[in-house]
Structures are given as C-alpha cells and as structure tokens.
Design goal:
By secondary structure, the protein is mainly alpha-helical. It is built from six helices and two strands, in the order αβααααβα. A two-stranded parallel ribbon has the order 1-2.
C-alpha cells in the first residue's frame, strides 16, 4: 500500500519535474559546416573516395574488355577454351564485387576512413555541447540534424548552435 502511494505521489509530481527542465536544440550539421577542419576532412574523403571509385571503374572496364575480347575470339575457341575464358571473367567479376563490398560496403574502408577522420572533430564538438549545456542549465538538448528526428518545429530562441560555434572559437569564421 505504501509503495503504491509513493508511486502515485511520484507520478503526480512527474509533470512538474519535467516542466522545470530546460531544453534546447543544436544543429550539428550547421556546426560542422562552420568548422574549417570539416572542409579539410571532406576534401580528404573526396580524394580517397575518388581514388577508390577510379579503381572500381578500372576493374569494370577490364571485365568489359575481357568480355569483348571473348566475343571477338569466340569463333576461334573450342567450347572448353570458351568456358575457361568465361570462368576467368566470372572470377574477375567476383573480385570486383568483393572489392566494392570491402571498400564501399556497409562497414567498408570508406566508412571506416570517414569515421577515423571525423572522430576527433566530433569529440571536440560534443565536448563544446556538453560545456554549453551545463553552462546554460540544460537538461535536454536535441540534435536537429540527427535522423530520424522527432522535432517538427523549432523556436530559434532555443537554438544553441551558435553558442557551440562560439565555444569552439569559430564565431569569426564564415
């Protein structure tokens, strides 16, 4: 009986506790785009990605060339020779798929490289978010850029993104 009375009391106080909490939001995408290191990271990622895309394209061109050569020589080849060449093409296709999965797959090298490059910057930003939230007495801070987000309206008065940019010392940039 006493436990249910305590629970009832706690539940009746819960709305008052929530209303006393200060909330706000930040837009980490906006903050990242203001940070000069992010532009450098994007450039480095584009260079790495471009190199790997070129390598994947070369593999595809090699496969197409092998197939074209096979078509041109088909009349000169025995069935056994034709099947051997066809198997070489299939093997090269498997290699190309494995390369694409290893580089561009869900947890591929491209994703890992991006995580590796972004991690220090993200840590810096989240440390600044933590300091701003504590300094402003915020109990809850949403990220407008996170997906999926349940924020359907934001009042600019509660946007702390510029405070984060200021905390990072970026207020004079851009």
């Amino acid at each position: 009986m006493e436990k249910s009375l305590n629970l009832l009391l706690l539940l009746s106080l819960f709305p008052m506790l929530l209303s006393a909490q200060k909330m706000g939001y930040v837009d980490t995408e906006y903050i990242l785009n203001k940070h000069p290191d992010y532009k450098k990271i994007q450039e480095e990622m584009e260079a790495v990605s471009s190199e790997w895309r070129k390598e994947a394209q070369n593999l595809e061109e090699e496969i197409q060339q092998m197939y074209s050569d096979l078509q041109g020589e088909q009349v000169l080849l025995t069935d056994e020779m034709y099947q051997e060449r066809l198997e070489l093409i299939r093997e090269k296709q498997r290699e190309a798929r494995a390369f694409n999965n290893r580089i561009f797959g869900e947890n591929g090298q491209l994703y890992q490289k991006q995580s590796e490059l972004l991690q220090p910057l993200q840590s810096t930003i989240y440390d600044a978010i933590d300091r701003v939230a504590k300094r402003n007495g915020l109990a809850i801070l949403f990220d407008k850029a996170s997906s999926p987000t349940s924020i359907i309206y934001t009042d600019p008065r509660h946007d702390y993104s510029d405070f984060i940019i200021e905390e990072l010392g970026l207020e004079e940039n851009n």
